[in-house]
């Protein structure tokens, strides 16, 4: 058994926790916050096997994705009200930006969806691995744990959402981007 690695395999190792951006490559792009505990990108798929008489098992070409969801879980240390609001779908921020409250009817307005949330990590050769979720919304609620001699970390799970008016738009992209 050959256990040797190629230079390319070594160079493609992604290092550290990376950085998370809101509306990456948009006019209002911003670095989200310092994190602790890393970030987690998840794609869940439900794949349907198209069964037919006489099949002896799974067959190439007779499968299709019938449900697909993507999330990016970020563990924030910057607990500004603006950041906490991102975790609370259907909430509103006060005019002075110092208070988040739930809305009376729980309506989630279209402007609450982020154009994208993007994680950028560097590999060993200095290039970037860029994972982007589109129409992102933190819709999993919030839990804040604060303990003595520790810093509070809030986990926000952002979910990508399809554009119901244009299904050709991606739910997510995963790209390799050369260093500048």
Q: Outline of this structure?
A:
This protein has 180 residues and is mainly β. It contains two helices and eleven strands; from the N terminus they run H-E-E-E-E-H-E-E-E-E-E-E-E.
**Strand fraction band?**
over 45%
Q: How would you characterize the largest beta sheet?
A: 9 strands, antiparallel
Please state the overall shape, judged from the principal axes of the Cα atoms: globular
Number of helical segments? 2
Domain count, please report it: 1
The helix fraction, in percent, is under 10%
Helix/strand order, N-terminal first: HEEEEHEEEEEEE
Radius of gyration: 20 Å
- Strands, total number: 11
Low-confidence stretches: none
Straight-line N-to-C gap:
38 Å
Structural class: mainly beta
Mean pLDDT comes to 92
Structure in words:
The protein is mainly β. The protein has one domain (7-177). Helices cover 6% and strands 46% of the residues. Strands 1, 2, 3, 4, 7, 8, 9, 10 and 11 form a nine-stranded antiparallel beta sheet that branches. It has a two-stranded antiparallel sheet with strand order 5-6. A hairpin with a 7-residue loop joins strand 1 and strand 2. It is globular, with a radius of gyration of 20 Å. 17% of the residues are buried.
């Amino acid at each position: 058994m050959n256990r040797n690695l190629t230079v390319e395999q070594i160079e493609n190792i992604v290092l550290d926790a990376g950085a998370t951006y809101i509306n990456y490559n948009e006019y209002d792009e911003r670095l989200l916050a310092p994190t602790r505990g890393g970030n987690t990108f998840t794609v869940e798929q439900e794949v349907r096997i198209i069964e037919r008489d006489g099949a002896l098992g799974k067959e190439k070409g007779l499968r299709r994705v019938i449900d697909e969801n993507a999330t990016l879980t970020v563990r924030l240390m910057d607990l500004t009200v603006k950041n906490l609001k991102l975790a609370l779908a259907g909430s509103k921020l006060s005019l002075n930006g110092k208070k988040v409250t739930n809305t009376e009817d729980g309506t989630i307005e279209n402007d609450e969806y982020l154009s994208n949330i993007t994680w950028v990590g560097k590999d060993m050769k200095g290039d970037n691995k860029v994972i982007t979720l589109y129409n992102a919304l933190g819709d999993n609620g919030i839990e804040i744990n604060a303990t003595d001699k520790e810093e509070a970390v809030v986990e926000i799970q952002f979910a990508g959402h399809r554009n119901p008016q244009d299904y050709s738009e991606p739910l997510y992209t995963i790209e390799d981007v050369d260093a500048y």
